[in-house]
Backbone:
């Protein structure tokens, strides 16, 4: 599926349950993937997330059991709504609750940004059984509960030098 130029939002549950969908190319104009947009797309192997993307909703890719690699662009979200205020110049990235939950084939998780504050939501990568190595950038200030639970093959986690903000881990 190639989603055309000018598309800014993929609506909630838009492709949910499309079990034959294997590849998606998103336009550079996309700003938001709503909740559960690609949930249960069990054949989805590849998705290119554009740099224009600002939000990945809750459960957006949950149970995409064939997804192997994710490169996360810089995601700007409404930080104040959920976490309080920060200086105006800070950009906050957020990975929603259960956003990639049960992506059992996920082998590689790559954070494209290392200079913006990042929050990893509750159960965001729960059950990603093929994930072996993980590098948490220093910009991560909060990891939600059970964010990496049931990542059964995870053997190495590296935390890079943190920013000056306090990091909270709720596991």
Residues:
């Amino acid at each position: 599926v190639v989603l055309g130029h000018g598309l800014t939002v993929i609506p909630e549950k838009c492709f949910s349950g499309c079990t034959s969908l294997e590849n998606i190319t998103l336009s550079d104009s996309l700003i938001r993937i709503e909740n559960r947009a690609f949930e249960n797309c069990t054949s989805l192997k590849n998705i290119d997330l554009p740099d224009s993307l600002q939000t990945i909703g809750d459960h957006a890719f949950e149970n995409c059991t064939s997804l192997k690699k994710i490169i996360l662009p810089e995601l700007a979200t409404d930080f104040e709504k959920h976490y309080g205020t920060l200086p105006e110049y800070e950009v906050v990235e957020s990975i929603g609750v259960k956003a990639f939950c049960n992506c059992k084939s996920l082998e590689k998780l790559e954070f494209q940004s290392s200079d913006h504050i990042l929050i990893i939501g509750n159960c965001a990568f729960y059950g990603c059984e093929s994930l072996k190595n993980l590098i948490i950038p220093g910009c991560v200030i909060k990891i939600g509960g059970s964010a990496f639970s049931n990542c059964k093959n995870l053997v190495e986690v590296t935390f890079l030098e943190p920013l000056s903000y306090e990091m909270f881990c709720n596991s």
Summary: The helical segments are 79-83. Confidence is low (pLDDT under 50) at residues 77-90, 164-171.
